[in-house]
Write a structure and sequence with these properties.
408 residues, alpha/beta, six-stranded mixed beta sheet, four-stranded parallel beta sheet
Length: 408
């Protein structure tokens, strides 16, 4: 009996730096973390300074020869480029280096394929993979199955049949129809929430900022928590109980990242657009990360791409328990900012108070005396509003409460 031993990929990270002082070094460090998340071992890095990437080969000819020697010296099984390569760049690099060539997009797709657990998540990932594959079919000759070249070779790229363009297009069309049904179901759920005047806050943030930990600490959701990129992909919604019988739904979303593949943004658009219909955006920032301001910019940029620009934002500078000094943490685009630690619970009481205050801003102070034969309406106020005072008088029940504007 023979057992197949899983061979770990040994990869070299490659990037093109187009100007002095850009974020190539930080981007490469993030790419290394992505590679490790996918199960690869990073054995080396190479950066070439160019005014722009070479259209046909990404790298210059001299650098390609240098990279070929480095692959042999380090016994690497492939390279990962820090940008999304054009099909011709990938093809020419493979021929010149005689090794597996991947790009940042393919690597992220590979991680998503491994992490998607729900049927919706799997549909979205497969759709993104097939769209990526479809743009790379022409020009590869005999090497058509591009998605078979990722870390672990997961997903639809394994199927030889799907290298045919017509088959892929048919599958894409089928996936779109399935996702339409998912979106229709989500719209019905959202409509029901609006009828019930249920308030919703969507948790967004850079990957590994602590969104799942926050949701678990506040609601006991039991979502997977791991100190690695894209530990959770599938959105989770839980109810958070506030004071005075107030409630708010918290929805976790997929983490953002720089150079997030547009195929993924398109495939996950229906999930990410939950933020469009939310009452609040809770933006979680990893304050212990030296690049926290850059990560904040990426999150706001992604929200703008989704057309989400007019929501109240509460920015939570998370992991403050790791900070040693009095670091200046600011977000001028947020309505409120708080320092917290989702892991230890520090600052979460302040967060609850802040949520109550922001929810109250959308309500109207309501005073009325109800005749005793209409006492049932007070229960609706308890359910949808914030009951401040209830007094039984001769002429009826006097009520003072904050209620949603639409409730009136």
């Amino acid at each position: 009996m023979f057992e197949n031993e899983k061979i770990q990929e040994r990869v070299i990270l490659v990037a093109v730096s187009v100007q002095n002082g850009d974020d190539t070094e930080d981007s490469l460090a993030e790419l290394a973390e992505l590679a490790r998340t996918a199960g690869a071992e990073v054995v080396g890095t190479m950066v070439q300074n160019l005014s722009r990437a070479i259209p046909a080969t990404y790298l210059g000819s001299g650098k390609i020869e240098e990279l070929k020697d480095l692959i042999w010296e380090l016994d690497a099984t492939g390279i990962i480029c820090d940008d999304e390569l054009k099909p011709i760049q990938m093809k020419n690099l493979e021929e010149a280096l005689n090794t597996k060539v991947m790009d940042r997009t393919l690597l992220i797709l590979d991680i998503f394929a491994a992490r998607a657990m729900t049927s919706e998540g799997k549909l979205q990932v497969e759709l993104a993979q097939l769209r990526y594959s479809l743009t790379r079919l022409s020009g590869f000759g005999r090497s058509m199955s591009r998605l078979g070249g990722g870390i672990g070779t997961r997903g639809p790229g394994e199927k030889k049949l799907e290298t045919d363009r017509r088959v892929i297009r048919d599958r894409v069309s089928h996936l779109k129809q399935e996702l339409k049904e998912v979106v229709r179901h989500r719209d019905l759920t959202r409509t029901q929430r609006m009828k019930n005047h249920t308030r919703v806050a969507v948790i967004v943030g850079y990957t590994n900022a602590g969104k799942s930990t926050l949701l678990n600490t506040l609601t006991g959701a039991g979502v997977l928590e791991e100190d690695r990129l894209f530990a959770t992909l599938d959105p989770t919604t839980r109810m958070l109980e506030l004071t005075n019988d107030q409630q708010i739904l918290l929805t976790d979303t997929v983490g953002f990242i720089r150079k997030l593949p547009h195929h993924l943004v398109e495939a996950f658009r229906s999930t990410l657009e939950e933020a469009k219909y939310a009452d609040l955006i809770i933006h979680v920032v990893d304050a212990s990360n030296p690049q926290w301001d850059t990560q904040m910019h990426v999150v706001y940029q992604t929200l703008r791409e989704l057309g989400i620009t007019d929501k109240k934002v509460v920015t939570l500078f998370n992991k403050c328990d790791r900070l040693t000094g009095e670091e200046i943490l600011q977000d001028f685009r947020a309505d409120r900012t708080l320092r917290i630690s989702a892991k230890t619970g520090m600052g979460l009481d302040d967060l609850r108070v802040t949520l109550e205050e922001l929810l109250r801003e959308d309500k109207v102070l309501f005073r009325q005396t109800f005749p005793y034969d209409r006492a049932g309406e007070i229960q609706r106020i308890r359910k949808y509003g914030e009951l401040l005072q209830e007094e039984y008088r001769e002429d009826g029940i006097y009520v003072e409460a904050y209620v949603p504007r639409e409730f009136l």
